[in-house]
Design a protein that fits this description.
- The chain is mostly helical and 134 residues long.
- The chain has four helices and no strands.
């Protein structure tokens, strides 16, 4: 039996509704947007700091598991984006089973990235200041 685009579309629709049910979703979608922003700011700022865009040798990667990955920007971007999408999907699934747990999962995932945002923002501001305003 050949696979038609209609069957594929039905399968994808059912899969999407299973992961993101229409009647239940994370209470605050703004938390999901914040998580994606923080994750991608982490990638951009880390790449700028490590590759000399904000000053050569401005920083080093402190996570030993990520030291080889951060030097490949597309791999770094893809890995972090997969983490954010996994967190969002998991939070939507858990929200269906336990009310408001999905929001808490996204909020907890945002905490380390908020600290990373603060540290990288000040490192970027400091190195740009040193580079352009001696």
């Amino acid at each position: 039996m050949p696979i038609t685009s209609e069957k594929t579309g039905d399968f994808l629709r059912v899969l999407f509704q299973t992961i993101f049910p229409p009647e239940v979703s994370v209470e605050k979608t703004s938390w999901m947007v914040l998580l994606v922003f923080l994750v991608e700011f982490d990638v951009l700022s880390t790449t700028l700091l490590l590759w000399g865009g904000a000053g050569a040798g401005a920083a080093t990667e402190s996570n030993p598991f990520m030291t080889t990955i951060v030097h490949e920007p597309f791999l770094h971007f893809g890995l972090k984006l997969m983490f954010a999408l996994f967190t969002i999907i998991l939070s939507n699934i858990m929200e269906r089973n336990y009310k408001s747990l999905g929001t808490r999962i996204v909020q907890v995932a945002c905490v380390p990235y908020i600290f990373t945002f603060i540290v990288n923002f000040f490192w970027l501001a400091y190195t740009v200041r040193l580079r352009f305003f001696p």
